Amino acid sequence: MPRPSCPRCQRPLRHCLCALIPDLDSRTRVLILQHPSEVGHALNTARLAALGLRNAELRVGEVFDDLPQLLAQPGYRACLLFPGEDAVALTGYAPEEQPLLLVVPDGTWRKARKLLHLNPLLAALPRVSLGAVAPSRYRLRKAPEEGALSAIEAIVAALDALEAPQGFDALLRPFDVLIEGQIAAMGEEVFIRNHQR
């Protein structure tokens, strides 16, 4: 029989994270497009980000037929948070600058690229990237390359860059607790053997 889970954060009730999820406002609108393979993942960080930000939306799928409507948000300039040669590093807003609709693909690098391939409108968006970032706190997954972050960490870094001096670190509280809980569940020895290299 499946363990009862929280309908909001989708964690087992005994490990509900809702009390740690903040309620943050942002000028930037965040649209997270999540590959279906991420939905059942124990560390669904995109969901935590969407729950903690008032101006965020999480959509799940491979092909988004309503993408034109999602991208045409009045008062926002749509851009894609994804590395590339033509990607511009995010910096703070100028005083009168129109805020961004920050589109964040969520999945492995392969799945994220697939989302771009299947949704040409996404691939056509101007790309933005993060400047120098702290190493990932996601100690349970080996980063495929230097500077790779989980979805929630990338969103926090982007918002911190755009909306300084406002900070968005509170979004990472449930993420940190989730990681610690996973490490505790596997045992310190197993964690050190499999993840500390």
Automatic annotation (TrEMBL):
InterPro entries: DTW (IPR005636), DTWD2/TAPT (IPR039262). This is tRNA-uridine aminocarboxypropyltransferase. Residues 2-187 form the DTW domain. It comes from the Bacteria. Belongs to the TDD superfamily. DTWD2 family. Its EC number is 2.5.1.25. PANTHER family: TRNA-URIDINE AMINOCARBOXYPROPYLTRANSFERASE 2. Keywords: S-adenosyl-L-methionine, Transferase, tRNA processing.
